[in-house]
Design goal:
Shape: globular
Helix content: 40-55%
Strand content: 15-25%
Radius of gyration: 30 Å
Amino acid sequence: MIRKVQRFPLAIIFIFYSFGIIAASYIHMSLFFWIMLLLPGFILEIVVKKEWFSSFWLILIFLLGSLNYIVSTTYTKDHIANLGAFSSPHRVRAKVIKSKYQHDNSAQLVLKNVKIHTNKWYSLKGKAQLYIEYCDQSYLHGDQIEFTAFLNQPENPNNPGQFNYRKYLHLNEIYGTCWIENSSEVTILSSPKFSILRWADIVKRKIIALIDKTTNSETAPILKALITGARGEISDRTEQIFIDSGVIHILAVSGLHVGYVTLVFLLIFGFLRFPLKTKYFFTILALWFYAAMVQFKPSVVRAVTMASCILMGKILERPYNIYNALGLAALLQTLIMPLQLFNVGFQLSFAAVFSIVYVYGKFKDLLPDNFQPYKIKFQPLRYLYELFLVSLAAQIGTIPLTIYYFHRIPIISIVANLFAIPLVGLIGALGFAQVILGFIWSGIAIAYGEIQNILVHLLKSIIAFFAGFSFSYIEMPQLDILPILATYITIFLILNADKRRYRAYLLIMVLLAGNIQVWQKIFYKPKMKIVFFDVGQGDAAYAEFPNGKNMLIDCGTRGFGKNYARDVIAPYFKSEGIQHLNILALSHPHNDHIGGAPYILNNFSVDKIWETKVTSHSKVFIETHYLADSIKIPTDYVYAGDYFEFGNQTYIQILHPSQKYIESNSPNFNNASTAFKLTYKNTDILFTGDIEKEAERYLTLYKNYLKSEIIKVPHHGSPTSSILPLIHHTAPQLALISVGENNKFDHPAPETIQKYKETGSRVHRTDRKGALVISSNGRKIDIIDWRE
């Protein structure tokens, strides 16, 4: 260990420092506990009578990481994180430190030095984010602004699998959010006269204005992302094709772009006849100014730190070690913001660079001599082959993280990178030339802009081509941290398989994994899992049976920019690796129940559709059946008395409506809702759709057969539903009300809630508590805390 500390001191220091942060995030102990960790290292060194420097100081660094995490996550009473909910808006004053502008003309401002006014001005610690729906004003670092808004905690996700926006903001040390409609509601009180960060913002705005002036609307957003890191103006569709092709990383300002910036400034200072060391020194200053301009993005700070290390090594005439440079870059960022260690951008950036260095180096040992790059005499082909190996090396190191965060394995990206990276390099190089020369003479910038229009169009066409392949990526279920760590260990052992002892460890890992797989199947006890989604004023539930079959019961509404199948159900399916549905059950043809059906049919395979035989002339009903017919998905009409078995003592009994009821009554859609009882051994769940009193009276004829542990409360808790005989016969332990917050129908009715409470039922409202996830072994029901 001592020799490794001497060779890679900064890398080893960061490893122990990061272990301290991770330990403190999992082990919530007092400050005294972490200080006591110093004693074992100190005692150990005394007992074994060796130099105490090594282990004692490494434990001290570990402790520093733990303390830094504790300090960063301990909030005083006057911290924004401890703000309660406010019933009315208040005046807010704050300082702008970051600004981000989107393609839909909205803006997000990160604020610090926040003050709120109630009866007087109160200063708050921590950062906040202001969202402006329509913004026609440019805000710069240091602007003191004032506005009126609610300052609240960021919202937690309401459904499993959804993006945790609150956690994302907390990792960036943002603890409060506020929203206003128009930038005209914001008053700029003052602006600083001297601020390097503000100058960096001004330069960035001027570059953006120049790009807008000299390129078309299709090219400008891409060029802004590559030069200034401003990705907000890229359309959702364009961003999605970059994601699907696995090359979204090229839109992030990173090492490639910093390399061009370094080269540009070296050329400029060389042209100005600066002495060699002076040239390097001013290039370092220019690089950090560029980092400020792109708002210190993790990948840029890493690349600038490493470039600075190289240049500083030349100034001091000292050798350069890339692992130490990586360690220093990571240490700088996490000393200032320890939570950055858990930021996906930070992790992917460092994992990619480390993999390129380490894995690419291993290729020299593992590849046969005939497959070594130096064997290729044709220079362009050698370059492409080396680029392929670099891309492969980066992907090997980042695949576990990609699976963990995005639930997918990119397949086509290795090939796409061969075309995209050289083209992005050319666009970036021309872009920097366009910007620098454009400030001298706009005519040059316009000429460069015409070339950029062609190149960016070509780039987007290539990316769209690769994104169009059905095998461009493989969807993966959500994995826990232990399988991810095991994957990294396995990768390390494979890369070192040329050494005998590592081959032995690899064999042990394979045998261990095989045993876990075998014994898991032997001891696995099948369970039924139900997810009642929060889809606003609508219904959607997913049932997974013990034998592995599944069904989706309704799929939420679609309209006014919302599609709950896309925004709620699909993220959960992707996180669980669900690509196929055995049954799509549509209770009745109202939009709040079948609005998401077209999205489900377009994006997931479905064996069959269940519904009652009622016809609607609504657009979504027609679209759903047109899609089902076109992709040959059969529709089964289910009626009271139908019985379906799913193995393992699991079955569904359709209770309503009967065929005679449909044919003779011409009922409204709500009363034609499919109601059924789902049973797994001793566990019963009653699904009721939107039935009202008329249909409920028919259900009560089943009397005690209705008894169920859980009832999906009819019609969102409407006062026209949930008659007392139905509740008494069902006698549910839990009443699930799927309802939208502040809905125009005032659902659920207070009297409906009271009925369930008086009969001993616990009420779960999705508008207040979010989704409900339960599992059952057939004897008892467990409520799963999916927010953990």
